[in-house]
Every structure is written in structure tokens, then in C-alpha cells.
Amino acid sequence: MAEHDSGAPAIDSNLFVTVSGPPGCGATALCTRLAEAMDCPYVSGGDIFRDLATDRDMTLTQLTAEAQKSDEIDRALDRRLLSIAEKWGATNRPFILESRLAGWLAGNRADFRIWLDAPESVRKERTDSREETAAEMSVREVNEAGRYQSYYDIDLDDRTFYDLQINTARWSKAGMLELVRAAIEAYDPDDDEGAFEADPIEITE
Questions:
Q1: Residue 138, burial from CB neighbour count under 10 angstroms (0-12, 13-18, 19+)
Q2: Which contacts of 155-162 are long-range, i.e. CB under 8 A and separated by 24 or more positions?
Q3: What is the DSSP letter of 10?
Q4: What's the pLDDT tens digit per position in 12-71?
């Protein structure tokens, strides 16, 4: 089995993987390592949100506040993510998409949908060095859930369609990669009896 610069064995897979979870859930740490192991592109909703802030010459806090006033910011972000999901869903090549709505936006195009979480105290400690404060992130988390329910009739508490849900506080970063690696490498399409269906999301202008 081939190894990458990190020393971790490569993952031979062509799965389209989505990773979702609240701020501080450990998604960036997992996706960075997973993308390297799978030797595939990785797109983060957080990076696209930062790009939107840069495009508008705003800070993350300012853009977050603006998103609470109008649906234009959210829909612009979601349109970009949906376009990426549509593109990669048709390639039959490995890819990782990470955002709160990644599993919903990718829908049935995704081969493997993951939800990450951790106790609130752990997530707050992990986000101490970020531009947003823990309090601001908590407010954004609640506000986003309400907006997604309003825009797309999505209940973020409904996680039945995720293939794997993990409390990332229980394992190290390396351990998390090994958990996901095991699930991906054990996947056999011939043994797949069916994923939970995900209704497509329509994003209006």
C-alpha cells in the first residue's frame, strides 16, 4: 500500500465523501488528512465563506452579520457548493466536500456522508484562536439552523441519512483518520443495500 508524505497509507477509493458538523467539530483536521490519503481535492464551505468576505471587503464577523439580514449571502455560498457537488458527483473520482450543508447539497450524488460532533466545551476550546469568538460561533450556529429550515425546509437535527456519525472528542486526529479509513476501505458496492435518500435542494436566485 502506497504511503504519502505524512507516512499514512494511501486510501484507494473513488468515493465522493461529504463531511459536516458544527464549528469546532474537527472537520478541517479530518478532511485535510483524508484528502491527502485519498489523493483528491477537498473543498471547504468555510473557505468559500471567507472568499465571499474577501470579495465584499468584509471581515467574517461582518459577513456573518450581513447573512442574518438577507438570504443573499447564504444562497450565494450554497449555490457555489451545489455547483461543486454537481460537478464532482458526475466524475466518478474521489472528492471531499465539507460544510454544514454538504450532505444535503450533495444529496444522492454523495457516496459517503459523515457527520462530526463533539461536546460544546471541547468545540469552544478548539475555536479559541479563530477570528470569530466562541459566542459568535454559537449565535451563528443557531441562526444558520433557523435559516436553513426557512430556506430549504432542512432540519439540521435530522441526521438519519448520514452513513457515519462520530464524536471527535473521543479519538486523536490520527485515530479519526483511521476510523474513517476503515469505513471507506471496507465499503463494497456489491454489498451496498442502499443509502438513505436525500431530497434535492433547490436554490432560488
A1: middle
A2: 156/100, 159/115, 160/196, 161/103, 161/113, 161/195, 161/196, 161/197, 161/198, 162/20, 162/103, 162/113, 162/114, 162/115
A3: P
A4: 999 999 999 998 999 999 999 999 999 999 999 989 999 999 999 998 888 888 888 888
Among residues 73, 71, 70, which one has the least CA distance to residue 58?
73
Q: How remote is the C-alpha of 150 from its chain's centroid?
A: 20
* Cell triple for 38: 485519498
Instruction: Calculate the CA dihedral of residues 43, 137, 114, 38 and round it to 10 degrees.
Output: 30
Grid cell for residue 11 = 486510501
Strand ranges in the chain using DSSP code E only, listed in sequence order: 16-20, 42-44, 95-98, 112-117, 164-167
Angle at 187 between CA 186 and CA 191, to 5 degrees: 115
Query: What pTM does this model have?
Result: 0.88
Q: Is 7 exposed, middle or buried (0-12, 13-18, 19+ CB in 10 A)?
A: exposed
Grid coordinates given for 123: 468545540
User: What spatial distance separates the first Cα and last Cα of the chain, rounded to whole Å?
Assistant: 47
